[in-house]
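Deviations from the work plan: none for this task. Representative record:
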Amino acid sequence: MARAVGRRRPSGAPGHRRQGRAAYVFLSPWLLGLALVTAVPLGASLYLAFTDYNILSTPRFTGFANFERMLGDDRFWAAASVTARYVFISVPLQLAFALLLAVVLDRGLRGLAFYRGAFYLPSLLGASVAVAILWREAFGHNGLVNSVLGWVGIEGQSWLQNPATALSTLIVLNVWTFGSPMVIFLAGLRQVPEELYEAARVDGASWYRRFRHITVPMLTPIIFFNLILQTIGAFQTFTQAHIISGGTGGPVDSTLFYTLYVYQQGFKSFDMGYASALAWVLLLVIGGVTALHFFLSKYWVFYGDD
Amino acid sequence: MANATPTADARRPLRRRRRPPSTLIRHGVLLLFLIVMVYPLVWMAVSAFKPAHLILTDPGLVSDEYTFENFRDGWHALNQPFSGFFLNSLAVTVGSIVGNLFSCSLAAYALARLDFRGKRLFFAITLVSVMLPMHVLIIPQYIFFSQLGWVNTYLPLLIPKFLATDAFFVFLMVQFIRGIPRDLDRAAAIDGAGPFRVFWHIIFPLMRPALVTTTIFTFIWTWNDFFTPLIYLTSTDMYTVPVALNSMVSSESQQGIGMLFAMSLLSLAPVLAFFVFAQRYLIRGVATTGLK
């Protein structure tokens, strides 16, 4: 049937061509945006990465000089290390909380909508300047955290002035926003067939074994989805680090997130060639980590159909 | 889904009868956890109404004195009242919403319904560009916009929205349109409607849930956005609320914490309003697409 229609009206026929033309009209804002806001800047930043450019003069091609400079740049390594620790500590913790609370909430508990909403609230606010300000004050020397610790007899400290603890306050902030992956887990848990749990219960499987051998395997595609999404997002954290440290990344570069360093180089020192090179390294690292996750997913993600 | 509901209903009374203590414990743990999570926000809200010298000495929720001083002082803390920053934020946010609704729905309709060359490639590009970090693009974009003389205007914040660069929403809408029965398009086409009329009279009105989700998330993201306005807006009178808050932080003193909290609280108010009145849409948006 479809073929007969196709033969009567090959792709060059007026109706089809009209649809094609209409499609490009519909797509014209998107195409323009793709070209001017995405593709051309992407190419331009790749070119700038190989130049010395301070916005006032014309870019001067310098080969791999920017990348060689990175190897000897202590602040680059500091930024890479801060960001790596942040991503690889906060994302697993955040997802663990999200999964745990989703499981606790799932099994027919009353007040699900209330809990779900309340736990989700921090995700909505977490990226705002206002909450970063709140964090800055709560972890300050006389802030909320030290007061509460004082009640239970623990001597507080200057969390933000101490290079050993400054990053952990931001890790706590990211873990605090576990609500959005939790909502996604809850949606996924509804798809797990109840028969599996019934069968396991008949066989006398404990709560932990049901969690370990039914819930987790059935949820692996969603764990994977959340992992990719949150990892990509965490690599790009900027606002919180900027507010907490007043834009410096201090103390002693302990909150110098990678994006903050790119911003400092590009828009404070106007060293735009070097900043472009830094940004491309970030892109390649995010791409590499994502590709690695996809490769490793073969070994632990379980899709119902295989 | 249809056969999952009866099992769930059958399970519930059985469990409640059998294990009430564990349910109580679960509620207790959840509530405790909730209090720890929400307490900082409540602390900020209450502190905004306390005299500055009490905020850091007394972290409790009940105070002897309440005052609106923080709001009054904070409103005028910068060399321009906060009303200006709120209006700026509102203008940018409303513009972004209009831009996203317009450009993303057009692109999504073409990608979901029309036949043309390069369709699969374009859809793949949409997916990939969702993951592209903006820091790779921001430097050339800045150079480009500054050559157009657009620095310290809202154009660099708004024009990209009218060009469907928030690929996430294109993706969201494509998925939604695919769920609308094609019979409706075909019936209209038989009656002689072209693609434009099909879009405008059939698809666009039926897309309402996707448009609502797009509106809410565009609002929250744009309202909270700090990085882009920080880069493009250079004079105080152009600042949006987050950038204004940032400059309050920079000039902060011990006295300033009350003002900071008061203005921070006000800046969160619209987002909290969406949370209260549109939670259904927020949760559904997150559950189906993984939006933040």
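Chain A touches chain B through 96 residues (CB under 8 Å).
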